[in-house]
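step=encode ok
step=design start
structure_in=
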């Protein structure tokens, strides 16, 4: 009956609306440092089984196919793509980029609790106390904390994460160590905005350590990892999503016309 087509097409429009939201968010963050694009995955819904495949026919032979009518589609999940983004060479000493696996660790407040969050955004600045903090709207402090002296004239961050400064005309001295964290399943991390992720049971517990150890990537000073969103690909996704949405709306119109025809039947 056409009522099944109505529900199936409506589920398609709802699912495509979610994909449209994800594509729009990807495009909105095309210039966000450390942003990772989101992919929307779909799955079909239950089927109305009107005849099981393999049912014996009159000759007692199994019919090679059955009659199964689908009832639509739904979003099965959103999946983060952690492929590396483009490199933006800034030359700023506090801009750090991770080459390879790993996340910077910062301290933030979530739901009223102080928690450790993780980010690929390495745009750090100094706060009033000389601590390295993220240059975002809240200025989360890097963990473990790194404090730069007020009279530091030269700041060097090695590929192994060691932070060295020069005070006056003196030699370079170590003042801190940048540590990274990695996860068995980074796609299971929870996004909370501000380029931050939180640990979840799906991501597994973090493994922490110095860069270039335990599978961690290396630190590059004076550069940022930009968004991995490909605008051309997202625009293609946007167009195909719009067209699929229109096709589902036409399915609803066709089903409505079928129901109208049935309702206008007269007995003679």
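sequence_out=
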């Amino acid at each position: 009956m056409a009522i099944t087509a109505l529900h199936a097409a409506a589920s398609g429009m709802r699912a495509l609306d979610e994909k449209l939201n994800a594509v729009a968010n990807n495009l909105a963050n095309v210039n966000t440092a450390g942003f990772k694009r989101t992919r929307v995955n779909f799955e079909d819904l239950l089927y109305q089984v009107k005849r099981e495949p393999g049912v014996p026919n009159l000759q007692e032979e199994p019919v090679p196919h059955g009659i199964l009518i689908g009832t639509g589609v739904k979003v099965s999940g959103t999946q983060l793509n952690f492929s590396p983004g483009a490199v933006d060479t800034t030359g700023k000493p506090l801009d750090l980029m991770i080459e390879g696996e790993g996340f910077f660790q910062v301290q933030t407040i979530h739901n009223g609790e102080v928690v450790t969050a993780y980010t690929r955004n390495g745009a750090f600045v100094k706060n009033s106390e000389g601590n390295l903090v993220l240059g975002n709207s809240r200025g989360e402090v890097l963990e473990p904390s790194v404090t730069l002296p007020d009279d530091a004239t030269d700041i060097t961050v090695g590929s192994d994460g060691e932070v060295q400064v020069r005070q006056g005309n003196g030699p370079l001295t170590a003042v801190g160590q940048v540590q990274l964290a990695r996860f068995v399943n980074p796609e299971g991390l929870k996004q909370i905005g501000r380029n931050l992720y939180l640990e979840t049971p799906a991501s597994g517990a973090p493994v922490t350590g110095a860069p270039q150890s335990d599978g961690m990537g290396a630190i590059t000073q004076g550069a940022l990892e930009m968004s991995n969103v490909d605008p051309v690909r997202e625009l293609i996704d946007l167009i195909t999503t719009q067209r699929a949405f229109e096709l589902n709306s036409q399915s609803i119109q066709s089903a409505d016309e079928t129901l109208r025809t049935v309702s206008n039947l007269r007995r003679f």
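step=design ok
step=annotate ok -> The first helix runs from residue 2 to 28.
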